[in-house]
Amino acid sequence: GLQSWKAWRGVAAAACIAIATITIAKLLWRSPQPVHAGKMMLVVLPFENLSDDPGQQYLSDGITEELSTQLGNLNPQRLGVIGRTSAMAYKHSPKTIAQIGKDLAVNYVLEGSVRREGNKLRITAQLVEVSDQAHVWAQEYDQDVHDLLEVEDEVATNIAGKVGLSMAIAQAKSPSHVHMPTAEAHETYLLGRYYWYKRTPEGWSKSREYFRLATKKDPQYAAAYAGLAECAGRQEALAAARKAVELDPTSGEAYTALGWVQFFKEWDYIAAAEALKTAIQFDRNYAPAHHIYSGVLEVSGHFQEAIEEEKQAVLLDPLALIFRASLAEELSTAGENERAVEQINQIFAIDPKYPKAHETLGNINLRRGMYKEAINEFEASERYGGVKERAAVGYAYARLGERQTAFKILSELQALEKRKPSGDLSANLALVEIGLQHRDAALAWLDKEYEQHDDDGPWSTKVDPIFAPLRSDARFQQLMRHVRFPK
After folding, report:
1. How far apart are CA 252 and CA 282, in angstroms?
2. Pick from 340, 302, 301: which is nearest to 324 by CA?
3. To bridge 45 with a disulfide, which of 7, 33, 111, 313 should be the other Cys (CB 3.0-4.6 Å)?
4. According to the model, what pLDDT value does residue 17 have?
5. Are the CB atoms for 337 and 367 separated by under 8 Å?
6. In which band, very low, low, confident or very high, does the pLDDT at 39 lie, cut at 50, 70 and 90?
7. Beta partners for residue 111, in sequence order
């Protein structure tokens, strides 16, 4: 349906980005420097896997991500760290440090490599200042795999000193207050994250298994519970998220997981808002927290605040195309369709076949009354590997006056719903019925979606202009009262 702004977990696999052949600067805001004024920016490039075993890629990827997180938590007011998606886009890139620095508007680049032989690790790391490509710091570590977290902590500490950050800052966690997971649990967790980032059904299934195993290997491991919360079923997800927060009440990642579950699984948007605000307070450099919080603000009708939060996500992770697609969706929902299309065009400058961008442009065209163009975009999204948007297409045909085609799509969806009922199908059927101006039928399907409570929820129905024909109805207003929207 129109729930095109899906959960961070639920996004289809991001298209591969050929960094060597594009100009990322087109994606960035026209003048990123004022946004980062007074703040140094750093990117941790993907650590190279020099092990003979390609299967060790999860380890080098995990080190990259964990170093980004550690550095991002040191002093968010003074040091910003570019997010994982943008960093990983430079894996095996031929671009120079100077080019990468210009692309991402960063002052420093951290790069390195990992070689593993049995339980022995050799980790190299070097910090380069972009302005003159000077090597500010370099170090080589020969350690046991069990000492990986200590090595990461030492690297972060050394870098903080080299970029002029004092370690005696309130935001930095004292190691004595942070549970150090067992080496076996940590490695299992890294495997979970590796598969989670594949963003495929098989990847989420494997990541769920690894996260569960990590919590069994170390029941005090907060990050493992946070990971499990983002790929488990509703009840397990909520319990895991709460456990993560209980175990590490200063973790932005844990509070983001809790907010995500409360938003997309519990439909408790008030609780989600509180969790995500707390997440951002603890980790201002965690782009997913800004991204999901923008969705909570959007459902509340606080469009400008939602847009500002999504901009922060984009600035922190400029090549995470889902963030920019979400920004376009929020601009359109707020009635700023021209600005929304600008964002879509910037995505196309990077990846003209990114399915989510075509889907989002389809939704924008629906709101603009450009129904034929909308159908073309939904078909393009499907052609490039996106989900099949039959309901949105059916709505468009209904609005075009081609009711016979709309009724055919409605019948197909009804047959699917009879075979395997779901909240997604109920929401989709409601959308087609709105297009056909069948108010009673649309409201009945929305009621059923609420009763099923097995999809991302009715959050878009309160603010999306497409649902405007239902809003004066007392039954719709009653349905909205069932959901906890922030005021």
Report:
1. 5
2. 340
3. 111
4. 37
5. yes
6. confident
7. 126
pLDDT of residue 278: 97
Res 370: pLDDT? 98
pLDDT digits (tens, 9 = 90+) for 11-23: 433 433 333 333 4
Rg (CA), the chain: 23
pLDDT at 164: 76
Burial (0-12, 13-18, 19+ Cβ within 10 Å), 9: middle
CA gap 120, 129 in Å, rounded: 30
Q: Which residues contact 235 (CB under 8 A, 6 or more apart)?
A: none
CA distance to 44, 129, 159, per residue, from 71 (Å) = 9, 16, 8
- Tens digits of residue pLDDT in 296-348: 999 889 999 999 999 999 999 999 999 999 999 999 999 999 999 999 999 99
Q: How far apart are CA 4 and CA 387, in angstroms?
A: 10
CB 192 within 8 A of CB 207: yes
Question: How many C-beta atoms lie closer than 10 Å to residue 381's C-beta?
Answer: 26
Lowest-pLDDT choice from 74-78, 162-166, 218-222, 351-355: 162-166
d(CA 82, CA 262): 26
Query: What percent of the chain lies above the pLDDT cut of 70?
Result: 90
How far apart are the C-alpha atoms of 344 and 458, rounded to whole Å? 25
Q: What is the pTM of this model?
A: 0.88
Mean pLDDT of 74-101: 92
Mean residue pLDDT across the chain: 89
The set of residues, in sequence order, having a beta carbon less than 8 Å from that of 228 and lying 6+ positions away, is 192, 208, 211, 212, 215, 236, 237, 240
Residue 425 burial (C-beta neighbours within 10 Å; 0-12, 13-18, 19+)? buried
Please tell me which residue, 458 or 264, carries the higher pLDDT value. Answer: 264
Q: Quickly tell me which residue has 């059916």 as its tokens.
A: 394
